Amino acid sequence: MTPDDLLDVVVVGGGAAGLYSALTAADAGLQVAMVSRKPLSESSSFWAQGGLAAAIGPDDSPKQHVEDTLAAGRGACRRSAAELLAAEAPGVVWELERRGVRFDRIGLPHRFSCNSMARPLTCG
Asked: Rounded to an integer, what distance in angstroms lies between the CA atom of residue 84 and that of residue 62?
């Protein structure tokens, strides 16, 4: 890539959301660049305790995931954003698994923080 190359998408941030966004855009045939203030191995996502939260268990639901997210945010979350996250998270988990991500499945997922259900999936 040179400074004269034209880009379709510039992703700012090298955490999990930024990486997934860049991957999805590139898969759609777009020219993508990522900008991060730190190396990827120093991102918050890399160091995160939990993992990816998704309502994938038989007794869980996106509705409950929304309520847990709002409770954890203590009034700082936008409901519409929490609803979108909870609705799309299970599909993202399946897509990442299709791409070869191997989430820990033995005795998991864990129950962290304000989750009323065992929800976060981890890797490695």
From this structure: 9
